[in-house]
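Hi F.,

I've been meaning to write this up properly since the lab meeting, where we talked about keeping a consistent format for the predictions we share between groups. The idea is simple: the sequence comes first, exactly as it goes in, then the structure tokens exactly as they come out, then a line or two of notes. No screenshots and no reformatting. I'm using this chain as the first example so we have something concrete to point to.
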Amino acid sequence: MEISVLLFATLKDIAGQNRLTVTLDTTEATVNDVRAALIAQYPHGADNFKAAVASLNEEFAFGAEPVTAGDHVAFFPPVSGGSGVDSPALPEHYAVTPDPVDHDAIVASITTPAVGAVCFFSGMVRGSTTRDGHLPQVEELHYEAYESMAVAKMKQVAAEIRTRFPGVVGIAIVQRIGRLKVGENTVLIACSSGHRDSGCFEAARYGIDRLKEIVPVWKQEIAADHQTWIEGAYTPTKGDRADRP
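Output, unedited:
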């Protein structure tokens, strides 16, 4: 059986391609079988593939879950860290885009007559840092996303926000991709509510923290003479699936 596989970030570099076909000597394959075949094909990246997160048809996948021909299988490192509207009363906006973020347009997209407050989190490209595992000086960042799954998981984040912060009216989640220079905006979470004490501050904080855990986006730090992918420390569990019990 042949399985088409997508690879992202570090794994893409190891394989030298982001899309490949894995041939399995079975008609009853599992996610584990696909992972093992990749390790056998790229033994120099065995540790990376063992630690990789798997997805099946754009949802997190685990171990013995069955895989069939035609499924969308992807492997990627832990994430580093389109638009739609559910209803006029509870507007939502999602985007994975190379374009600069228009903050005024975002405010307009999640504002209704019931809104009196909007809280933003806006991430930026930082030029220098002392954090372990990062380049001390960066000229730009390269962001990559599993775009269709990223939008699906953004919608999951929004649903979680609504469960935890029922006073929130509008939600916007935007992730930029491509090469971004120091000082440019990289990601935005915006939440609107009737009043500033109705949860919009807390919801925006929850949104960016959750995005860094489950939305499949990675960044590559680029300096004058070096570049490196930054991988996260959070590994999704079955509880992070949108269809969890």
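Notes:
Residues 92-240 form a domain with the Aldehyde Oxidoreductase; domain 3 fold (CATH 3.90.1170.40).
The first helix runs from residue 9 to 15.

If this format works for you, I'll send the rest the same way.

G.
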